[in-house]
Each structure stands twice: as C-alpha cells, then as structure tokens.
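Cross-posting from the chemistry board since nobody answered there.

I work mostly on the small-molecule side, so proteins are not my area. We synthesized S-adenosylmethionine and want a rough idea of how it might sit in this target. Sequence and SMILES are below. Is it possible to get a predicted 3D structure of the two together?
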Amino acid sequence: MGHVAELAGVSVRTLHHYDGVGLVRPSARTAAGDRAYSAGDVERLREVLAYRRLGFGLREIAELVDDPSADAVAHLRRLRGLLLERRDRADAMVTAIDKELDARAKGKRVTPEEQLDVLGARLYDAIGGAYPATRRTDPRIAAQIRDALGDAQTVLNVGAGTGSYEPADRAVTAVEPSAVMRAQRPTGAAPCVAAAAESLPFEDRSFDVAMAVSTVHHWGDPTAGLREMRRVARRVVVLTFDTDEPRWQDRFWLTRDYLPEFADVLADFPSLAAMAEAIGARAEPVPVPWDCADGLFEAYWRRPEAYLEDHVRRAMSVWTRVGPEPERRAVRNLGEDLASGRWTERNGDLAGLDAADLGLRLLVG
Ligand SMILES: C[S@@+](CC[C@H](N)C(=O)[O-])C[C@H]1O[C@@H](n2cnc3c(N)ncnc32)[C@H](O)[C@@H]1O
C-alpha cells in the first residue's frame, strides 16, 4: 500500500479510505499473505484519482468506474475529453476576460450577455461523457438517411458527436463544437473540425451534401445554422423534430403523461415549416422502430422500463434540460404506473406496433 501511495502521490490514509468505502480494494495477496494491489486495482485507482483531480465527488466517481459499459480505453477517452474541454474552456475564459478588461479600460459598458460569456458553458461538454453508453447508429434510420444522401461523394456532418450515421463509403468531414464529444469519436472516424453550425469554416459549396442528425435543437440559432449548411453544400439533409402539429406533445406517452416540461425545452424551437424553408427542403417522417438501436429520447416507446435506467436517461439531453425535479417526478410516476399496470392499460395497443411516428422528420433539400 505504501509503495502504491508513493507512486500515485497520495497518502496511505487516502488509500485506506478508498478501501473502506469500497472504491478501490487491494484484491491481491503478497507471498507473505498481505493484501496488495493487482494491476487491475492500480488501473482503477488511476481512474479514481484522475476523476478526483477533475473535481468529481466520490459518489459520482464510484458510478463512473463501476459503469459496466466503460472499459479502460473508454475511461481514457472520457478523461482526455474532459481535460481538453477544460483547456478549451480556460482558453475561452482568458479570451473573454481580456475582452472585458479591454472594454472596461476604454470605459465601455459591459452587457450582462458579455459578462456571462466568461463562463462559456456548453451542454455537451457537461453531459457528453454519458453519450456512448446507449447512443449508436440505428440501421433503419441510417438507411433512410443514406437514401437521402443519394450519390453525394463529399459529406459534411454538422453536430457530428461520436459519428453515428456517418456513411463509411463517402469522404466525410465532421463538425463538432464539444471537446468531450470529439474525444469520444472512434479511432479511424472521419476528421472532425471544432466549430459550430452557425459559423461553418468552409467556402461556399464545398460539399455535395451537408447532414445534421439530432442536433439542430441544441443550436443557439437553428435558422442561422441551417442557412450555413445550405451555403457550404449543394444539398442538405437534416433529421429533426416536428412541433407544428397542435398538441404535438401528446404524440408520445412519455411527454403526454410524465414529462410535459419537454414542451418548454422546445418553446423557442423554429417550426418545421420554417426550418424546411431555410434550406428549401421537403419533410418525410422517420418512424422509430420498436427496438431502435440508437438510445434517443423516443427510442424506448415500446420498452418503457428503459426510462427508469439512469444510464439510459443520462445519454438523452432532455432530462438534463428539464432539470432534476421533473426528472425525479417523471421516473417515480412511470415506475409506479408500470408496477400497477396503469401504463399497460393506457398504452397496451403499442405492443402490436413495429414502428411509431413520434414526430421525427427528415428534411431533404
Ligand atoms: C444529440 S447529439 C447528436 C450527435 C450525432 N449527430 C448523433 O446523431 O449521434 C447533439 C450534438 O450537437 C452538438 N452541438 C451543440 N450545439 C451545436 C452547434 N451550435 N453546432 C453544431 N453542433 C452542436 C453537441 O455538442 C452534440 O454533440
């Protein structure tokens, strides 16, 4: 224990504490029969200490290192992303502070927006680490996107995240503003540029097609981002969400009966018609298969128990955006309704469906 403490730069007391709370237990024995750290224990200790240094609490760390879906490589990628994100954020803060110092030195008024610029928070830098647990390409949705891409050879994927739905047989360039998401792109994935949709660093008509999947609702200015896509590519393909239909939130039992706050999240989202107009596109429905492989918000419409799972919800931004109280209430009520049979009473007819139209739309222009 003393040797490991010295190598790791922590006190023996800290190691005893981690042992006591079950975070890192020395699972091997020396020849003399004393407890010792195996190579696996040291790997786990390294992860615990790295997350600790990044400011995570011990309870959060326990959840992270016990996540069965994350191996050592996944942890290294996540840690790398978190560190890059911290570096990016520090750079952005220094730039914003310099700007404000300059403005103050010149006696200029600093607006509240400019003051908040210093914080520069981004949702996916905070929640992106949980994304790969359930978010991946669904083959049926991928086939529909592929059809829409047609014979395009050069493809720009905006808000690319970890690279789901990027066609392997075309020349893809990805754009992704979150360092955490960029760091989780698999080895060999398409090259990825750190930028945002609203200001794409490419010449006019640089690509055959620009695509964007499950991302437009995160953009600060969706219409500006869509126009940028239109500018840099000859064609545009966007998977987004339809809020034009009256009472659209009743399409899905989850928003209708458990999470009406979802409507507030999309309150400022442009209408489907306005988005289609910005890129000169037509809209086609994207049915969500009952066994959708991509853990998006609507994916588990026929598998309601999934929404009770924390790791499933953490990979869906909606839950972070509505806040902890509505989330707790929705999960509690859904759990109770599933246990009492009330959910099945209200939604039993879904069992006979293979796919459902829950408002996902593909804009093809
Ligand atoms: C739900 S993920 C979708 C990722 C990927 N397209 C997929 O289908 O798995 C949304 C992504 O949009 C990115 N994003 C957020 N704001 C953006 C912006 N202004 N421009 C481009 N991408 C943005 C996030 O960082 C995140 O990676």
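Reply from a structural biologist on the board:
Welcome over. Reading the output above for you: The longest helix spans residues 72-105. The pocket of S-adenosylmethionine is lined by residues 124, 135, 158-161, 164-165, 176-178, 181, 196-198, 213-215, 218-220, 225 (CB under 6 Å). Happy to explain the token format if needed.
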